[in-house]
Write a structure and sequence with these properties.
alpha+beta, Nuclear Transport Factor 2, Chain: A, five-stranded mixed beta sheet, 25% helix, disordered N terminus
Amino acid sequence: MRCTTPTLIIPALLFLSLDLITTQAEEAPPMTQQEKAVALIESIENGDPAPVAYINPDKYIQHNLAVADGLAGFGAVLQQLPPGSARAEVQRAFTDGDYVVLHTKYDFFGPKAGFDVFRFENGLIVEHWDNLQDIAPPNASGRTQFDGPTEVVDLDKTDANKALVSDFVSTILMQGKMEEIGRFIGPDDGDYLQHNPGVADGLSGLSAALGALAEQGMPMVYTANHKVLGQGNFVLTISEGQFMNQHVAFYDLFRVADGKIVEHWDTIQTIPPREEWKNPNGKFGFQ
């Protein structure tokens, strides 16, 4: 959908009174936290000011280090967008308690793949994290950063799938115990579908990519896992480490089926030096 008046949201962000925001929220039909988060992201493209009511105007903690805290910081970024330039198409969404995770195809100061995480309190958004990466051509297996299944299923397996993925990040990505990878991923290339632009399907594609980085003296290193969020067959891990000799945040989305990791999407974003941060909250800071 083309946005012809994206700056309509700015007056809502900057000038609506608390009474008006509260009234809009009360008059709107009941919505889930996930629906509110999706509506807020889509408003970046369609210019609808109503979803601003889903943000707590007195408490909006921002972890995008290029954006200042609060509604004013959010509005300032939107105001910088060239008119009609923004696109925001949510590809996947799921909920884990007070957290909502969105996987989105953006055109936001250029085409980007992004993950957004929103934390809710009493039905309102009070905290936001994200991770963005430029969109690249399909990888060697012909997969993009967005295609693949989107439906959340296996809700009864949420806890088991989160535990499996958490174990994978700790054992394989952080400790490097590659001899144990068979516990997590099947042996055939078709057992592990890869959406990272630089990695092909299967363990063979993963091994080749990691080996090439190591040979270049730039190994991919995971030093900390800050959060694991999941619902059913989808699990997102938010980690910290080194990539291409830079300090980065890793957002890894895994799809799990029958007790194995079968598909992977991700974004990797460089963490800027402290003096460049627009807010004091840090890239992670999960409770």
